[in-house]
Amino acid sequence: MAKRIIFIILGVLIVAGAGGCLYYFKFYQKPSSNLVNPLSSPTQTEAKLTIWQDPAGFKFSYPEDIKIDDHPEDEENYAHLELTSVSHPGSILVWMKDTDYKTIEDWAKNQGNDVQIFDSELGGKPAKKVAYFNPQKLTTATIDVDVLVLVELVSDDEWWAKTYNQILSSFEFIPLQGEITPSQTSASSGQENGGGVIDEGEETVE
């Protein structure tokens, strides 16, 4: 009888010990290095870019999930683009319009007093970046021949700010058919003055 009780007690201890080990390994085992830290911020992937090439003579790259309205009803301006996103409030506007200003400095002087103006560049041309406070917007402007080019940011969203910088850094002017580029003008001037070196064996691809 005593031996039977001892065997029962030993059995209970063995079962309890096995259960305790299982509980320990299930809840107190060392966490895997593959687990996601809930305090860490998610990694942001770079947005896939696409290129907009405008018949007015410029191009730039932008995130492909952006919608562009080129306002075909606008017959006054050479270009009138409105970039919007379903996921982010705000917009970017791109304009090309006639101007009487001869230099971008003249244009900048007439933007009022409640602004901040910085030297900048757009498409390889000297530009001015203007921060307006009422209403709030950021505009980068340059003059291409006799056309005023404006790229306007109407948002304080960080995503739009990155997109704006992407457009500015990738912005390029495209010579229109029959348009004389500065490099062509310099080459022609060099021929007339005898100062240019022409290698007839080199082919220029436009």
How are the elements arranged and paired?
Layout: H1 2-27, E1 49-54, E2 58-63, E3 67-69, E4 79-84, E5 91-98, H2 104-109, E6 115-122, E7 125-133, E8 136-144, E9 147-154, H3 158-170, E10 172-173, H4 182-193
Antiparallel strand pairs: 1-2, 2-10, 3-4, 4-5, 5-9, 6-7, 7-8, 8-9
Short description:
With 206 residues, this protein is α+β, with helices and mostly antiparallel strands. 28% of the residues lie in helices and 32% in strands.
Describe this structure in words.
The chain has 206 residues and is an alpha+beta fold. The protein has helices spanning 2-27, 104-109, 158-170, 182-193, and strands at 49-54, 58-63, 67-69, 79-84, 91-98, 115-122, 125-133, 136-144, 147-154, 172-173. Strand 8 (136-144) and strand 9 (147-154) form a beta hairpin. The longest helix has 26 residues, at 2-27. It is globular and about 40 Å long. Residues 21-45 and 182-206 have low confidence and may be disordered.
Q: Characterize the largest beta sheet: strand count, sense, and whether it forms a barrel.
A: 7 strands, antiparallel
In which order are the strands of the major sheet placed? 3-4-5-9-8-7-6
The CATH homologous superfamily of one domain is called: Mog1/PsbP, alpha/beta/alpha sandwich
Q: Give the % helix.
A: 25-40%
Q: Over the alpha carbons, how many angstroms does the gyration radius reach? A: 33 Å
| Poorly predicted runs | 21-45, 182-206
N-to-C CA distance: 106 Å
| Secondary-structure element order, N to C | HEEEEEHEEEEHEH
The residue-averaged pLDDT reads 76
- Classified by CATH, the class of one domain is Alpha Beta
